[in-house]
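Hi L., both proteins are below.
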Amino acid sequence: MSRRNFEQENWITLLLSLSRMVSLYPAKVKGIGGSKWGYINEKGTYVLPPKYEMARDFQENGLAIVQLNNLTGIINSDSYFIVNPKYDTISPFSEGRATVIDSEGFKIIDESGKVITPKAYSIISDYQEGRAVAANTNEQGEYLYGYLNRRGNEVIALSYESANNFINGKALVKMKAGSFALIDLTGKVLKSYPYEMVDDYGEGMLAFRKSNEGKWGYMDESGKVMIEPKFTGTQSFIEGKAIVNVDNNYGLIDTQGNYIIKPNYNSLLYLGENRFALGKSPDSENPYLFPKYAIADSSGQLYTGFIYNGVSSYKDGIASAYNDENTFFIDKHGQRIAHLPNVSGSGSLTFDKSLIKGDIDLHILYFDKNGKLVWKQNTVIPLNDQYSVIENKFKPNKDYMVYYPQVQGVKNQANVNQALKDLSGVKTIPENTQLESSYIGDFNVHFYKNNLLVLELNGYDYPFGAAHGMPIRKYAHLNLKSGEFFKLKDLFHPKADYVKVISDIIGEKIKNDDQYSYVFPDTYKGIKANQPFFISEEGLNLYFEPYDIAPYAAGFPTFTIPFEEINSILNKDGVFWCSFH
């Protein structure tokens, strides 16, 4: 074959390869056993079937992060695993590198999946300007920070108390002696600063304060004070302007410290392209409540009233915004763009390759560029030809939303579905009143076998201003044939002392199994007769609420008991047992 024919054949092969390349979009299906993710094309048709527990967007390198069996891997557009699912988490690629976490700690992989770090670290950040911040602990248990190059080697030794990403070849670090310094890409100290705190490096300016209780000011890279300390909080300078905080009110300053926007707002967000969102809380006595936003430019000129609950960053003159009712696109004057999607619910809209992606009320939707709906998540979960579970949404207030199940085909259907609504948190909620907390509820079809349907009902109640919210979890065990809800006692012989038997089994697990070392000492006193539980293929599972026997971070401590271990007390002639056998 001649060189010309060879090159022509390669060119044709490349064109054919490119023609087969399609844009893929992650999409979720709710089904028995929970939700699964796959990838659709621009017509809304699944190209990669929904089999993953999690699926992220395909990146520019043609790779996507997915999860199988609670482990994370990386696939290409043919669903071939470039990295088998073996990591706890994987970060998106930056500069051709990704951070992975396994039982040993943080590591770096390249785009082929090869681990390039010779050892694991306690922390590794994303790459920026060919450097990634890394940290490990020393013999005293103190974190020391340094930098890795793109080969995964320590190009700047782990010797700092803290370290930041590089910006234009410079990074702010805290020396072990306590002072702060600006270093170059080799670790050479360009300038040191003898202040208690230095932060928010950007555009040649650094925020500083002289004591932990003191106010913040700004200096230049040489250490010359440019703006005297007078702020409660600061952010980095961007395009010659910085957002500052004065006694929990936000404003905007120039490089001389002059106010462009006075600190009269409960929130101030930079949206890019010379636009800001100014936020005012609806209740001046409770400023921690979510504010309403107005669109303004960097001179402080307002283009709208305080009408938005949230606004995204601008790109090419367009941003996404939402109010109490809808999510839509706005122009640089804050006005809704009529020809683009206007979607009921709260969230965001983004241009994603050839489609518009909506993340609305915790559900994903896709539209074409004309605003026509291409794909949305299913709301019907078929169990068999007779039974199905229907997803319904209850959102009477912007801060209260529940997705709750209704079962189709079950006996005594009306009473069953009313009970499921009550269990899910569907109740009287004032429409236009500011609530004291936000509540989100959802459900999964956890288990289905023969006539037994187990529904997992989840919720999260967050009191505004609190450090964290409280998760809620309930399980409904429904006999589809009779419409009866089962209780824990229904699983056992009427005269069996199941409370003592199970209490002893769990007590032994806590005592002898290291995986339960998180349980507070001497807090476990056994189970209750109506202990929260759920049935699974693995057996009987009993769980405790947060704080009952373990710290909040432990979630719902759960103990799985195979049915063989409690065979002697199971009522195998009972309706509960027979419903799934």
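That was the first. Here is the second:
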Amino acid sequence: MTNTTGAAPDRAYGLAQCRADVTASDCLTCLNTTVQDMASLCPGQKNAMIYYEECLLRHANASFFGVADTSSVKYWWNPQNATQPERFMSLLGPLMGNLTERAAYASPRLFAADTADVSSFDRIYGMAQCTRDLDNDDCNSCLVIAVSRIPTCCDGKQGGRVIFPTCFIRFEVYPFFNSQAAEAAMSPAPPPAPAGAGAGVNGSADNSTPGAGSIRASNGSVKTALLAASIPVAAVLLGIAFYLCKRIKKPHKHVPIASADGQDIASSEYVLYDLSTLRAATDNFSEDNKLGEGGFGPVYKGAMEDGQEIAVKRLSKTSQQGHLEMKNEVVVLAKLHHKNLVRLLGCCIEEGEELLVYEFLYNKSLDKILFHPSRQQELSWGNRYKIIRGIGRGLVYLHEDSRLTIIHRDLKASNILLDPDMNPKISDFGLAKLFDIDVSVGNTSRIAGTYGYMAPEYALHGIFSAKSDVFSYGVLVLEIVTGRRNACGGQRSEDLVASIWRQWRRGSVSRLLDCCSASADGLQPQEMLRCIHVGLLCVQEDPQLRPGMEAVVIMLNSRSITLPAPTAPAFILPTRVGATTPAELDRVLSIDDASVSDLEPR
């Protein structure tokens, strides 16, 4: 949708568009985020653009409507190489060429998405979209140029994006779009809308926004830029406009964040909140507003004057390690933006206080619901499955799609936050580690994290990699399916992974579902067993045997893929930090003296 406001020479032109396969609610959520970020990151700019995974916003002091723009370009690519590069590229070209033509001439929303099979296991997922103010020929020209740039950025890679201000293309080896919604978006146009309906606009430019988008701005002032989703509701447009105007008229102070662990982010900025503002928002950090407490310090719920709800993490003054983790969290989150990662809004460093301000998530952390007897009924199987897949997508972004490889190192149920729709967001990046693209394994003498979720190579030797996070994810999947905590608990009880593995080996797979919450309505045994199978693949003792997160997401989304048989998982016992062999585990945890046979699950 486009909008123009003001009079020359102070006329402002604004555009907004969501990806055509995105739901209305996700579209609005994305645009609300970009409106806030536009106001905080580009205050007073005459020309600015923010491009995120699902939507974009753009404004300028001169009209750019209906003009194909390939003057600036942004590339992203998956650092992993295609397994069959020659065949992959031979199929990618025709796929993207076909999508270009379909988007330009066959789709009413200038959008197309489709797939091409590389093998029985591998598939290419492709997408092309133009801003909807372009005519068909201009859209086609823009997309043709974008496709021609693939060898420049992404030759032989498993995924890549070419983003111009008025069109973009993307391809991956995993599903990143909603296929059903994409089909609907490519269907013939409905009857004409009433006169005055707007067209959408898309784009991108340089100077990367942390993790998921890019921003380009030039100096100057702008009276206002009104941007709305492609949702035909005037109230939404006016509401966003009013909010944006308030943010531009009263800009927050900004502060460059100091570097931590050698990571220089002097160029990154966050909103710097006044301590008095946060005290007022949290009722002076009252106990009634306390949401919980971790090693960093307590977390409080707050409400700003404009009604925005926030969560404020307050560094304990006695926690030196918390100080380092605070810096690390800012370093990491400065580079990230994804719908399955919690969003850091800003910070406060004043009067000896160090505080981080996050978006507030209504349902708090996953463990508060998953392991609470009186709340487990809130998690239907549909919600559990959505949470499992959402966490997986977040990890794919951290490991593969962000600008740097990021290892979380403390993935667990209490670090998964849930929004009102039970969508998961990974939080707490205090222990996260960043790698350059060509580095994937690290070693540390400081073992930090949570036993029960730690991969054995990390717990025993301090070696961590993306496969360490995969192990933690596997434990988390088993917890979500069963509703049981992997407690590594009592002297006589076996942990959750051990229990599931024993039953899996004996072929008693039906028993694995007995512990699932009876209130988890809509149970899908095949989906649940597939999740358990994937979870066991993730917790295998040998890191090389664990699948990468991209493969995990594909396994969860496709029933046509035959999963390999898992090997023995690693077990960390509470009485000693060490891994037992499967035979030792059987002796330690065996209920009776009966022998244990190796059986494939039925």
